[in-house]
Batch of 4 targets.
Target 1
Amino acid sequence: MQDHWRQAGRPKFDDITLSVGMNMSKDFYSWISTFFARKGERQHGAIVSADFNYRERARRTFTEALISQVDLPALDASRAEPAYMTVKIVPEMVTFETKPGPKLQAPQRPEQTGKLWQTRNFLLTIDGFDQACSPVTKVDQFSLKQQILEYNTGDRRFPIRIPGKLEYPNITFYVPSVHADPFVAASKKRLVDYEAPPATRLNGAIQYLTNDQKVLCTVTLSGVDIISSEEQKLESNAEALLMHKVTIQVEKLDFEYKTDAIG
């Protein structure tokens, strides 16, 4: 019996996952803004490894990269923890070099990332729910995802990466039950009484703030509609404040970075 002949196929490069705060360059956050705006902008870059003296020892250079996912962190007004967003990028080509390079010069920033962006500093607003949103204590993590399609041609060994459909998430937040009446009434109208949504759809925003309440970045919510409203589990021996969970859907998200917040 003759053995099967095996041959290497098309190479595939792993996606790159970055965990970042708010101290990256302005160009990096502009790239994220274009991703939210569905522009499919491509970027080239490199991941550089350095030794203890910050001298370059290895470099992974990527080209024609597209963002495939951005994860915004969970927010909790009771926790003073550093906040980070996760950015996943899909490159078309990656090359690896190990030759020694020059000493790296990291940009100087006025504040450390952990002190600059914390999970407790945020502001959620929705049209018509200004007072009801002010006591919001938590917002769950949510992700904006984009399918990245592969286009193979006969004269290329590596596929061309093409941006596909953008998937908008539902957003869940929590408010004390004593302040939840406006959300309960709105959800009853839309989900139980089945009233039509207003002709002008609701809009809103999540502002991510510094400790001195400067705006770091804003995620704008367009076409907001409440799809779920429920009271959290009751426990007779619990001493915590009773919370109400609200979930909204959105038709569009936009991202804006404020360069003047970090000096």
Note: Helices lie at 26-36, 113-116, 130-133, 181-192.
Target 2
Amino acid sequence: MGTSLNSRARQLVQGEALSDPALETTRSCMGRSSVSGLPSLPRPMARTHPPRISTMRQLMSSLLLVTLLAACQTAPPTDAEGSRVNASTLTWVATYNNCDHASKLAALYDTDAVLWGTMSQAIISTPGGIQQYFERACMTNPKSTVELGQQLVRVYGDTAVSSGTYAFTVFSGGQARVVPARFSMTYRRNGDRWLIVNHHSSAMPAPPAQPSPPRQ
């Protein structure tokens, strides 16, 4: 009886057909066993998993890593980038209102930028054409100014879009006139700067006329 118990105990400690929690329970029980002839045995070496289980775990780890990397690449843009794009639009407004050199406004546009100006009769697609457009705007006396209204910014990696409204104050015959307008600016990241690659601006259409009340 004692020999049989000793043989079975050694099998249990070596981990045959037992899970890890069962092994710990078995070792604990053997250290204080009251069964005659069942000595305490030394703690066995850690078991290694069969090759099939190890391969499956490596495969699952690889799949998890690929999933995490994909999630990082498609993560939504941070508020910091949206703030930088917003700051670029505010810089455009401040530069337009200062308007001491049209070249400073043109420098806010990428080299292949396209401009549809509020007062432009044709699309402008060259750096020189963009600078000439703003030279005409800056030559007026008094100079026109712009006030930013609503702005909606969306960032898509190295591209961003700012859409919103602004209002120009222009002068004709010494009289000021406010021209409400709407705009869309598409930006492209260039190093640590966001440069305009597409700028569309148009006067806000007049609200539709209210229908006349029916005659009584």
Note: The chain has two domains: 2-73, 79-203.
Target 3
Amino acid sequence: MTKSHRLDHNPFLVPPGKKIDLADFDPGYTAGFKDKEAAKAALLEDVSELAQMQDVFWVSKQYALIIIFQALDAAGKDSTIKHVMSGVNPQGVAVYSFKGPSEEERLHPFLWRPMRVLPAAGTIAIFNRSYYEEVLVVRVHPKFLDGQLLVREQSNEGLDHLWKLRFDNINNFEKTLAQENTRVLKFFLNVSRKEQRQRFLKRLEDPEKNWKFSVADLKERERWDEYQAAYQDMLRATSTDVAPWYIIPADKKWFMRACVADIIATQIRELHLEYPHVGEREAAALAEAKQQLLAEQS
């Protein structure tokens, strides 16, 4: 499929092994798209291509795919998933939200949660928030560690040691997935503090959107700088060759969706998947079946 647009993904990529400053990534960047209509047209192209490629992805059953979305409140995770994945076959896609862990989940290692919902070959799993919450929200609120399964030595070494250990465990986990042909695509939807405020106000002013707002959202907003620091450290530590992070500008939802769709479509396309080839015996059987069906017309 020939696309009328080409998007350079390098400005969004967190280079593995290099320190980045989150402040250097502009949440309002639009990569040269002139306006909302141009981005919408690009999104439609990518959604259409993604639908076609998912069919080959499903039938070939050579890979599985995990797509991770992390973001602060009101960045647009739900709407991005809705728009970008609008053309895919629901049979081959599952969406999981990683909210606060249950009692059972707290009694297991933190990576037990994603292990339970790993996608099978040919399918896609979307994580709306993910196991990365354990080095983000839990880092900002270390009291959430209470009741978790922690080795005593981990607790005694201090929190800095614990976060580094979890970063290492995550990297090893994703490396193992890659070795087993499960690809991991990771998106941080980067919304500005100013734009988050505007979206919160819209939720409060529109009665039909009141349900989206929680007083707890304001409490978390007060910890903005802490979250920025936690995200920056996490992005630096866990963007790897096999599972790099993409920082997606999120102030313009129309660009954010087009950008995410373009990256997903490109990554699947570069797997160079093909429909299964039929052997000689199967081909002969198909030809015979065709002749039988054609004979019914006479």
Note: The chain has a mean pLDDT of 92.
Target 4
Amino acid sequence: MMQGFNTRSQEIILNPYILFMTMIKINIPGKDETLEIKHLVLDFNGTLALDGRIKPGVADLLKKLARQLQVHIVTAGTFGGVENEVQGIPCVLKILSGVDQTGQKARYVEDLGAESTACVGNGRNDRAMLEKAKLGILVIQEEGAAAESLLATDVVCTDIVPALQLLLNPLRLTATLRT
């Protein structure tokens, strides 16, 4: 079997305490709406990691977010070794099969409850989950970002660290999303 090609999807819970979460509330003036985010779904390669290695500062931010949200990392495992890279981060790791990853990611968000989910991604296969989520954040980093995913998001960031910091500092999102 080729490295990174997975024929069956797997879900691994990396910390049993993730079931005790709260939520992040984000008030959006002008829309008379308060986002109540319980789940954070993140793509791995191109979003949290570069060439299969988690980016500096990301693990610490995810640990902070895991105190407020249930963190989910979804990946095809293109570079392998994702389990080792996210070890110590309280999260659910979802390793996708090689077939219809766009649809798998979208269904994963729907199963969690799209109305209470924020997603962060960059690739073409992230488009549907970014569009379905209550809050979609696209990151444009070293791998770039797919144009069709850009059009499906609410917020665009130039790096994963500021994207995660938006969720830790919700007033930044309020300022960006107000009408």
Note: Residues 118 and 179 are 20 Å apart (CA to CA).
